[in-house]
Every structure is written in C-alpha cells, then in structure tokens.
Amino acid sequence: MNIRKKTILGLLGLSLCFGSCQPSTPKEGEPVQEVEPTQASKKMKDPSVTVWELDDPDGLNPITSQGAAATYIQNNIFSRLLEFHPEDLKLVPQLALTMPDVRELEEGPYAGGMSLQFTIRPEAKWDNGQAVTAYDYLFTVKAIKNPLVESGNRRPYYEFIDSIYISPENEQEFTIFSKQRYFIAEESAGDMLIMPEYIYNPEGLMKKLSLAELNKMDADAAEKDAELKRFAELFNSPKYNNETVVGSGPYRFVEWSNGQHIILERKKDWWGNQTKNPMLVAYPDKIIHKVVNDPSTAITVARNEEIDVLHNIKPVKFKALKEDKEFQELFELSSPHVFGYYYIAMNLRNPKLQDKKLRQALSHIINRQEIIDVLFEGLATETVGPINPQKDHYNDQLKPFSYDLDRAKELLTEAGWTDSNNDGFLDKRINGKLEKLSLEFLYNQGNEIRKNIGLLLQGEARTLGIEIKIKSAKSSVAKMKAKNGEFELICSAWAQGPQLDELKQGWHSSSYETNGSNYIGFRNEECDRIIDSIRVTLEPQKRKALYFRAQAIIHEEQPYLFLCVPSSCFAIHKRFSNIETSPLRPGYRVTDFQLK
Could you tell me the pTM of the whole model? Predict the structure, then answer.
C-alpha cells in the first residue's frame, strides 16, 4: 500500500517587522501620537512560553502517571536529587548539594551491598516555607513501594533500597542502604521527583510502616491494612493527580482545563534563585501547555504566534516547514536524535498471539524501510529491540526482521493458519473454536504516523489473508486499555534516557504480575534470570554480555514489532535565546528560555 507524502496547504503566515524597524521621528513641535503595540511586538515582549500538546497528559502525580508528556510538565513543578546534564548527558546535582558518596560495603548487616549518602541543599524549600528534608524523600520511596499505589512501572527501580538512615543532626542528610549492589543505584536514587509529605500524606498514614516491612508486603497483605489502603485510595485519586499538585521546583501549578491547557507560574521567591547551579534556572514567568488535538491546526496556531514551542512535529510536516521561509523567519527548527523507539505491542494473553511464529510472520510483513522513508521522511533509524542503538550495550549482532512476505506465508502455515472455509481470510481452530485471523490495531487519536503505520500493516496483511481493523482512542483511553489488557495490537513509543536500561520494568514476568509496564504479559524464564543478573552485575563487560542475550531472546520471541528510533522534530520561536538542543527528551529545556 502506498501512502502519499502530505504537504501543508493553505496555512497563512504573518507579515512581521524584525530587527531595527523603527517609526519615523516626528519633527520638532509636532504632537507625538501614541501607537498601540502590534500583536507581534506584544508577543516579542511576552515573558511566558506556550508549549503545544497533542493531548492532555495522563496526570501530574509523578509516581502514578506514566506518559512522557506528563513528565515534561512535572519536571518544572518538582525537583530531583540528580539530573542528567543536557549537553554531556552526565548526572549532576540538582536538589542534592553534591554528588552522593557511594560505597561498596564489605562488613556489617549490609555486607555485599552498598550505601549512598546524600545531602539536600539547605536552601531547598516547599511552598509553605518548610525545608525539603530526607523525610520527604523517605515518604516518596514509601509511596512507590506501597503495593496498592499505581506505581508498578516505577517500583523495580527502587527495590534495591532496604533502609534509609536520616542524620539526627541534619534532616537534609541521609544514607540509603542496600543489601545488593544495584547497577543503576545512583541514577535511580537520584532521578526520583521528590514529593512533600505534608501535602501528599497529611494524615501520616505512611509513617507507621518501615521500608523493611513494605519491602516484604504484597498487594493482598496491603489490602488488609486499613491505613495503607486509605492512603493508596487518596494518592491514586484525581485530588493528587490534577487538582493538588505541589513540588519544590520553580513553577507552581495553577490550572488544568481539560482539553484546553495546563498553566504553570514561576514562583516569585523560589529558593533555586539563591543557588548558582545551572540545573536550577527558570526564566519564563509562565509556562502554558496548550492542547491542540490536530497537528496541522497546531502549526496554524503557531504561525499566529499563539504557540511558542512545537515538539513531536510529524516528519512530513517538519520537512515542509524546513522549506517554508516565512515560517523560519519566526521559528528555529531542530531535529536531534533522541532515546526511545516506536513499536507495535502484541497482547500475549490473546490465544491468537501466543504462537511466536505468528508474531514473527507479522514482523516480516512490516516494511520498516518504507516507514522510515515515507512516514518519518528519513528522520529515523531501524532498531531491533528495547535498547537504543546509541548505547554500548545495544546488540548490533542481531539482524532486523526483513520485509519478506514469502517467509511470512511459510511461518503462518507452520503456525497452522490456513483458509479452511475459502472466505479469503486465514483461520485456525483454537480451543475447539474456529478463529478468523482478525486483529484490532489501536493507536492514540490524532497521531497520524501511528495511524499510517496501521494502514501500511493493514494493506500488506490483507494480501496474506489477515484482517487488521484500525481503531483510534484518546491517549488516556488507549493507555488505560493497554494497562487493562483490552487490546490486540497497539502502536506506541517508549521514551528513554541515556542511563543503563532497567529491563525489569517492561520485560520481567514480575512486572506483569505487579501491574508494571509489562502490560503485554511477556513471560520467559531465561529472560527473567538474565534480567535479575543484570541488576546486580557491576562489571561492564559481563553486564554487556547479559544485555546481549536478553535482547536476543526478546528478538526471537517478537512480543513487540520493533520499528525505529525517531529524531525529535521541534520548532521554537526565535524571540527566545539560550536554546540548546539535546538528545534528552523533549530535546530542549523550557526553563532556559530567555527573551532576546
């Protein structure tokens, strides 16, 4: 099936005066007329930044939300101990005063494990003036570890924390102890967005249980604890997801108008202004996340200077904008490589999709090069698994599944799919019932690339007797369907970072059992053992070999149809300076924006 490359038509630009345009000087004695500033000149002086969002985020609670869009907003409301620097991608202090003191322990109750000592900046304050302390950090870890809190996707990163010792002399100094030497302990401990206990645990419901008790507790035991259950019900509720949102970051959450916008305002006397840390800067007075469900409309709105930042621009539109001189008078365009990948996930709980030969056949039906060339305009690279090709532990020995319809036919026949009733569609008897090979392809509404991936798959599959039904849903609905296993095929993307990959989150069977990110129900005993080994292997070469084997297993099983790694295409209004591109998503730091 051919998909025509779309062009952007009928988008009107503005005729603006830039640089040194000045009104004529009146002659002596002539009255001076006051001229109303134009919309353009008003905009050039506006210290706020408006960022386009395709849809509402899935929430602003940094523990229970999962979407990348939510994280970008939360980053300006909350703070973390450590942050990845956008230029060299190394961890640097943010809320922490310095990098932690990390030690491998050889004796005592944590022999064979490790410790990490942190000190929170003395300037750090919550909105009520109270200091940010280690007790807030402890509370945040406890909230994640509460089995009833919707944090299954984050829990694997904090399993290594066995206890936290808070200095009696300084509540901003604490030490994390672990019985194991976790391979990304520093990144996990430092990357968590810290939440104020006085806001999110006002009744003190999480104080009575220690980390040791929470580490041993499962969901059934937690259900019997009235206080843990009450805390989780409150914490998971809309109150702490889109109503009460408070952090130690530079911006205060002001308003969420569903389907319209989310507004953040810079705090007048934010504590970060007292530091000289470049990771604690915030220039715009206001950040407005404006929801526009149609990408073409969003570009039109940007031309009218009602949007300052367009991110995740679809490549076909980005290419058109690269040739649009009028648009480029207003906006700077950039497309850095990012960490992440596109994929089609398959629900392995569905009896039709449990045979890996069928999954492999579907992978051979995918024309990845056409997807890259046509849908991504060449702004993507092919990939074979969940590790980004830019990383040293990416298994470059694996070959992508080729576009090969003949091989797909062979695999379908081997899997027992034939057209037994001559209706033009493959079928197979499963659990005593004749099942037609018909699959629903779900994607988030408004995402044209994912829709067109489905159309390509639909066209190729039909030639082999496979029916693909394409269905869209709002992002929040699609995520809920994925979480609840109410799908067959779903097209989505993983947003990642530069750190070592914690495969337990998405690929370990326990992540499926504990409501983690393994929503497809992938289970492989060897892969589980390897993932467990990776987590405690500190020697890089040994760990790399384990990573290679895990990727080989996932490649063979094909629970995802891995597609490509995209570039991040965005446009930022030229009225701002101090804009640096980065492979860290979303590719820029909005807090750095300064008016020229």
Answer: 0.82
